Amino acid sequence: MPDDDSAQAREENHEADPELTTAPVGDEVAAAVxxxxxxxxxxxxxxxxxxxxxxxxxxxxxxxxxxxxRFTQCLDVCAVDHLVDAxxxxxxxxxxxxxxLVANFLSHPRNRRIRTICEVSVDDPTVASIAExxxxxxxxxxxxxxxxxxxxxxHPDLTRILMPDDWVGHPLRKDDAPARVPVTFKEDPSPR
Amino acid sequence: xxxxxxxxxxxxxxxxQTDEGAQLLxxxxxxxxxxxxxxxxxxxxxxxxxxxxxxxxQHPSTxxxxxxxxxxxxxxxxxxxxxxxxxxxxxxKTGEELTYVQGGTNVTRMDYASPLSNELVYxxxxxxxxxxxxxxxxxxxxxxMVELNRMSSHLLFQATNGMDLGAVSMMIYGWREREVTLxxxxxxxxxxxxxxxxxxGGVSADLPxxxxxxxxxxxxxxxxxxxxxxxxxxENPIWRERTVGVGVITTDEALALGATGPILxxxxxxxxxxxxxxxxxxxxxxxxxxxxxNGDVFDRFQIRxxxxxxxxxxxxxxxxxxPLGDYRTPDLKVTPPPRAxxxxxMEALIHHFKxxxxxxxxxxxxxxxxxxxxRGEIGCYLVADGTSKPVRMHIRGPSFYNLQSMDAMVPxxxxxxxxxxxxxxxxxxxxxxx
Lengths: 192, 434
Description:
Chain A is of the alpha/beta class.
């Protein structure tokens, strides 16, 4: 449970609503993505290009970046659970949901990066897999599925990767409390 | 059953072979010969059936608790699937519970062979969210420490790689030089491993007295060691037999499978974040990016061998050009007051106490920072919500992705080569499972 103090701090920050604002697109790749996928939103996040895309376009954006914008590697896919900071500041035009799915792309020939983010609701946590486009991302998608319960449609082998196969729940979700599983100690007759 | 047809000549030869302990190779005759031996059990596999075996998780040559499921056809590996998670300790969850001040102790335990890279990437990410500039001296200390750590990490690789392929003396030599670098790291940071030395805002302590001489001495020792390894292994026919042309991966495969670092560079692809997207002061120092063309186990061994020398080069330049000044940012929001002030000022004491109990607040935002660790691109994705703890702290561990490149390297090769290939990937399971 978050303590009162930090909860209060969050309240204050939401009123302030700093930083994350939609900047005019000054990035050619982001501009191309927005032109191809209307509804995408560009954000300059501390000097890094971030594009918020629709969930349905997740795979198509990755294909577009790979095939037409020469983004040779997808380095990372991970998710964020915004349960405790649900009222977070998001750029205009983005409908905040509980989960955010984040992918980092790198283009070696252009020597630049771009990050795509899509909002995923907790009721229907399904996103199209990009493991076919970037085979190296298969592990990362398995990890995100394992720890957040986000289902990747079309993934070749969507199984748990870090947790045991028979584990119940998704431990990096904010409501999956730590210490939920009682710890038993050796020679201790009763579970604590 | 028919008796074996033995002519007199053969009979005489058999009779004459009566060395002590040797058995007379005469076919059995009489009753014993009549008995028919029947094998029961089954069903027995067809000849062309394949076998699936598990290598690990407690196999010494899998570098920790890595399990590899392999489908074998005789000695040939058809498929190899790494199974990970045996060292999963929930470090990303822990990272959400710790303040930015405490976070370093957590991330440093991920890649335990190069802890300073982890600390660096975490600190850089937090500093970007804070829009914090660190002083020059801190930048150069960080660069020197990370390069010393790269040396120790690659020396560890030389040792374990040698051991995996049967060059056990190499293990002793590799450990010898690694110990020297660890001792230097201990002198500077106070700990051999898991230093928590690079903190948000700078480093935790200034360089101690006599660091210059010690560092240069370590550089000399390591250089001499690398020359020895090169002499021992590079032209060694047994070593080349085991490594050249084994576990070949192409640039396209490496890129597709998300491989970075020495694996990608061994395919003839010149990509090093220190050169391509310089951080710290890497655009200010002179060093070469080592890359080779063949993409086999031998090339990955060579890249790591000669990268040690490049690191020595960078460390020497750091020693020579280490700027004077503060070793951490003067911004009192993130930097505790000097120890001496705590004794005389109540405010300083409170400040110190607040900083280490509550931590400092980081404005809302998200960022991804990547640096070149000895294993490849290590990245930190950090999401802040304005409190003193991150909402999300994700580390992109290079080993986690590099393991997948096994898909391109192992199938089609021999079983014994799989050991060489896993060794050449140099995975650190603490980072894979986090």
